[in-house]
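Quick note —
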Amino acid sequence: MPSVTAEPAFFGKTYDEALGLLIAARDYVAQSERSGKGRLEGGDRLRLCCETMRMTARLTQIMAWLMAQRAVHAGEMSQDELVQKQEPLSEIRICMEPGEIDGLPYSLVGLLERSHRLYLRVARLDGRVRAVVSAGSAGAISS
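Predicted structure written out below.
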C-alpha cells in the first residue's frame, strides 16, 4: 500500500474553486431550463447546448482529477498508477478549446471562461505530476 502524504497546498483551494464552479454551473443549467432557452434561434440553441456540454466535460474531468489526487494523498493508489490510468488532461481537445461564446448569455459566458481557466490550470498541474512521475521512472530505469 502506498504511503500517505499530505495534500499539496494548492489542493484545498483548487478543490473548493472547482466545487463552487460545479454548483454554479448546475444552478445555471437548472435556471436556464426554466427561463426558456427556447427563445433562442435553432443555431444559437444548439451552440448553447454544445458549450454547456463542454463546460460539463471540463468540470467532470477537473473533479475526477482532483478526486484521484485525493486518493493518491490518502495512500489509496500511487501517482504512477494514476498516470497510467488517466488520460493527460492536455490531450482532451474538447476541454482545451475555448469554445464559441459570441451571442451566448452573459452568465453562461462567465461560467465557460472560468471553467476554461480552471481546466487549463489543472491540466498544467497534471502535466507537472506526469513529468515528475516520468522523471522518477526514468531514474529507476537508469539505476
